[in-house]
Specification:
83% of the residues lie in helices and 0% in strands. By secondary structure, the protein is mainly α. The longest helix has 45 residues. It is a multi-pass membrane protein.
Length: 328
């Protein structure tokens, strides 16, 4: 009897270890895949695409996948118990506009002017923006330790920003001056702010609908908005913006890669990481995102990895980790 009990305990321990390993692998792969979005966008810019066509093609290829995911989630028992009401639908539409359509558009516009490393560094300020918005609009109090953590993170962004200013080669474009880097940084920061608003607004709705259901519905809305924007801008500009007919087949292949590997698949991977590791541990594993961006930008875009860039990235990650611990 004792032997069988020991075998059962060993089997349970092995299954638990395997689950944690799968969760770690999924969370890591999801973070790296999300970070690859900027690399793919930069490569498309080199092929002649602009921000409007890049985000439009990405969402056009992602829409069928998100629609299939939404259909699959809607068939679950949980979805049947909590049907989507009219108010829920409007909230989902608003979140899709703010969290995915607007954030994606601003992000891809900013990537035309700054390096992929600076883009990823700015986007990792999301936890600090959520905290600041909570203080301003919800009246939450902030501890001095959290202020210090945010100061460290923003100081890291300044270091990476100065690195872009001192670098002549920004991955795709050669900056005409400091205003180019400032414009690109401001656009990406606005993207991060838009996504922070989405995170704040999705709190109660994600509890009612579930995270995967909310993401699939909101993403479908964002895909439609991005495609409509693509068509309208192309027509209004007389074909000067949002063009795609002149793009080589490699641009379409990159768009498919962006849609599948850098947009839809990472959502499932991160969910698996949260399932096996928990939200807190999965978010800690996600810190590999900026580091993977540095490596991918160096390999695929030729962006240099310098001590200044590593210092700034380390400060950002350190500030975000400290902020999570203070809030926890």
């Amino acid at each position: 009897m004792r032997v069988s009990e020991r075998l059962a305990d060993a089997r349970e321990s092995l299954q638990g270890l395997t689950g944690r390993q799968l969760g770690f692998a999924a969370a890591t792969a999801g973070a790296v895949a999300f970070s690859g979005k900027a690399i793919v966008a930069k490569l498309m810019y080199r092929l002649g695409a602009d921000a409007v066509s890049t985000v439009g093609m990405r969402m056009a290829y992602a829409l069928p996948l998100f629609a299939a995911l939404a259909w699959w989630v809607s068939r679950s028992e949980e979805a049947r118990r909590t049907p989507l009401g009219r108010r829920d639908a409007w909230q989902v539409a608003a979140l899709g506009f703010c969290g995915y359509y607007l954030a994606s558009t601003l992000d891809f516009l900013g990537l035309q002017y700054i390096s992929a490393s600076l883009e990823r560094a700015i986007l990792y300020l999301n936890p600090t923006l959520v905290l600041l918005l909570s203080v301003v609009f919800l009246g939450h109090r902030v501890r001095w330790a959290a202020v210090g953590a945010m100061a460290l993170a923003y100081a890291g962004v300044v270091v990476v920003f100065l690195h872009d200013l001192s670098s002549l080669h920004l991955g795709v474009h050669v900056a005409a001056g400091w205003h180019d880097v400032l414009l690109g940084g401001a656009l990406v920061f606005a993207s991060a702010l838009s996504y922070a608003v989405y995170l704040m607004g999705s709190g109660t709705l994600v509890q009612r609908l579930g995270s995967l259901r909310l993401v699939s519905y909101a993403s479908c809305m964002a895909c439609v908005l991005c495609i409509v924007q693509w068509v309208v801008v192309h027509q209004v500009s007389g074909g000067q913006a949002g063009g795609w007919a002149h793009l080589p087949w490699q641009a379409h292949a990159l768009s498919v890669l962006n849609a599948v590997a850098c947009t839809v698949l990472p959502i499932w991977l991160v969910m698996q990481g949260v399932k096996h590791l928990g939200a807190s541990m999965a978010s800690q594993v996600g810190m590999i995102g900026p580091l993977s961006t540095l490596w991918m930008a160096s390999v695929w875009l030729g962006e240099p990895i310098t001590p200044q860039l590593l210092l700034g990235t380390a400060a950002i990650l350190g500030g975000v980790v400290l902020l999570a611990r203070v809030k926890g």
